[in-house]
Amino acid sequence: MLPRTGRLARLAPPLVLLAAVLVFYGRALDRPFTSEDFLLIRFLGENPPWRDLREQLASPWLGISVVRFYRPISTLLYGAEIAAFGSQPAGYNVAHLLVHLGSAALLWAIVRRLAGPDGDLTSFAAALLFALHPLHPNAVVFSASFATLFGALFLLAAMLAYQRFREGGALGAWGASMALFLLALGSYEAAAVLPGLLAAYDHLAGVRRASWRRHASLALGYLPFFGVLGGYLLFRRSLFGESIGGYEEYRNLLLAPQLRRVLHDVAASIHQLHLPVYDRPQAPWVLAISCAVLVGAPLAFWLLRRRSLDSSHARLWLFSWVWIVASLAPFAFKPSVPGNGRYWYLAAAGVAMSVGFVARGACAATRPPWRRLAPAAAVLLVACWGVLLAESVDAYVAAGRTARTIQGELVRGGRTSPSPAFLTRYPYFLENQAQVPVAQVYHYGVWDSVHPPFVPVRVPVRPLPPLAGAELLPVALGAPGSTIWEWDGKAGMLRRFIPGSGERPAEFRALHPGDGAVVDPARDFAEVAVPPGRHARFRLLVASRINGAAFDLDPASVRNGVLRADLPDEMLTTSDRLYGGGEHYWWIEAKDAEGRVSGFSRMRSFRLD
C-alpha cells in the first residue's frame, strides 16, 4: 500500500487537470442553447433515434442528404441526452465537459505508454494542453457538436486499446480496438483516419529497432482496420453515391486538390493550431517563419543531437505530426476559426503530444541551466492558451445570452402581434473586431427556439436572409398581414419594419409558380417577367422554417423579358424532412450596378409535392 504522500502525489496531476478545466469552463455550464442546438433537440426529441434502429443504422444522418453524414451511434447517444435533459442546457454542458475530460484522460494514457516509464510529466503536459486548447469551446459547450466529442472519445479509446494489444499481444484488446473503431466511424466521419494512425504508431512509435520482417509482420495488426475502412467507404458510396463526403466544400477540395492552396492552408493551420489568435490575417512570411520554428527547428535539433539523444524522441515527435496532418485531412486542411473549432479537436491532440515530446527531448539532450528552457516554454504556452481559452469561453457565453435575448424578444413580439412573422438581420455568429466568427448564435434554429420544448408557446416566425430597407418590400407587400422584425444588435431589441412612402423600385410580375401552389422542387422553377431597367444582378430569395437563403442568378438568364430560376431542391426537401412540411416562400430581387434595389417580385408561398 502506498504511503499517504505517495497517494497524494499520484492524485495531484488529475486533480490539477480537473481543477484547470473547471476554472475555465465552469462559468459556461449554464450557457443557453444556440443555433443548431434548438433544431436538433427539437427534432430528435420529437423523433427519438431508437424508434427505428434499423432505419437509423441504414440511413443518412437525420434522413437528410444536404450534408453527407452517417452518424447513427453519436445520434443515439445525443438522443439519450435529449431524453434525459430536455430543454435544460446545463445537463448537456456538464455531460459534454465530462466527455472532454475523458478524452483528455485517454490522451494522457496514450502518451504515457508512448513516453515510457519516465514520461509522467510529458503525459500530464499533453493532457493539460489538450484540455485547455482555445478552440475547444465550440466542441465542448456547443451541444450540436456532440458527434465530434463522441467520435474523438471512441477514437482515442481505440488507440489506447491497440497500444495494450501491442504491449501484451492480447487479442481481446485488439478486438476492443476494432469495436471502438466501428463506434467511432458510426459517430464521426473524421474517425476514418484511425487506421493510418495505427500504422504510424506501429512503425514510428511502437518499435525501436526492428528488421524489415518485423515491420512487415506489424501490418497484420492494422491491415484489418484498413479493410473495415474500405467497407465503410463502400457503404457510404451506396448510401450517398460517393465515398468521400460531408460538407460539400471540403469534398470538392479533397477531390480536386491544388498544391499551392493545400500548402498555404497547411501552413496557416499549423500556425493557428499553436497560436489561435484571429485579430488579423496572417501574412505569408509570418506563416513561413511560424512553420520553420514549429517544424523545422525541432527537426534540426534532432539531427544535430542524434548522437546524444535516443532516436525515440524524434520518432515520437514525428508520430505526433502524422497525427496532426492526418486529422486535418478530412477537412481538406482548411484553416479553422473559433466558430467551427470542433474541426480541429483531434488535431489539437497531436499538437499537445508534439509540444510534450519536443520539451521532453530538449530536456534529455541539454544541460543545466538550458534544460529549464523547454519546460518553461511549455508553461508559457499553457499560459497563453489559458488567456485565449478564457476569451473564447466568454464569447460562447455571450453568444448564448444573445440567442436567449432574441428568443425572448420574439416571444414577447408574438404575444403583442400574433400574426405570422418574419425575422431578419439576426446574427449567425458573434464576430470579433476582425469579423472572424467566434461563436454560433442563430445560423439555424430560429423557428425551433420559439416553439416547445424551449418555450410554452408557439410563435410562427420564419427566418429571412439578412435584408434591410427596400430589400424587405417583397415580404411586406407579399404578406401584408404579417410582421417583419429586424434585430438591432446594438440596442439588443427587435424593431418592426414599416415600408416607407417614397419611390419604389419596379415591380416584376410573378409567372410561376402561383401563390400557394404545390411544386416538385427537382423539376419546378421560379419565373418572373422582367421589364427593362438598370438591372445588373439578380437573386432568388427563399424563406423556409429551416433558414432563409439567397441565390445569385446569372443576368444572362433573362430571355425575352423572362427570368427563370431553379428552386433549391436540397434546402427545401431538408426543411420539409425536419419540419414535417409546411409553407415556403420565394421572390426575385434585382439590383443595379451601385447595389440599389432596381426591381422585385412580391413574395409568394408554395408547398412541396
Q: What gap, in angstroms, lies between the N and C termini? A: 72 Å
- Chain-averaged pLDDT: 91
Instruction: Supply Rg.
Output: 27 Å
Number of strands: 16
Strand content: 5-15%
Structural class, by secondary structure, is: alpha+beta
Low-confidence region ranges = none
Number of helices: 20
Biggest β-sheet description: 10 strands, mixed
Helix content: 40-55%
Based on Cα principal axes, name the global outline: elongated
Structure notes:
The chain has 609 residues and is α+β, with helices and mostly antiparallel strands. 53% of the residues lie in helices and 13% in strands. It is built from 20 helices and 16 strands. It has helices spanning 4-25, 36-46, 53-58, 72-85, 89-115, 120-131, 137-140, 146-168, 171-185, 194-205, 212-240, 248-255, 259-274, 284-304, 311-328, 345-365, 373-416, 446-449, 473-478, 569-579, and strands spanning 421-424, 429-431, 437-440, 461-463, 483-488, 493-496, 506-512, 517-519, 525-529, 537-543, 548-553, 558-559, 562-566, 584-591, 597-601, 604-608. The strands form three sheets. Strands 7, 8, 9, 10, 11, 12, 13, 14, 15 and 16 form a ten-stranded mixed beta sheet that branches. A four-stranded mixed beta sheet has the order 4-1-5-6, with helices on one face. Helix 16 (345-365) runs antiparallel to helix 17. The longest helix has 44 residues, at 373-416. It starts with a helix and ends with a strand.
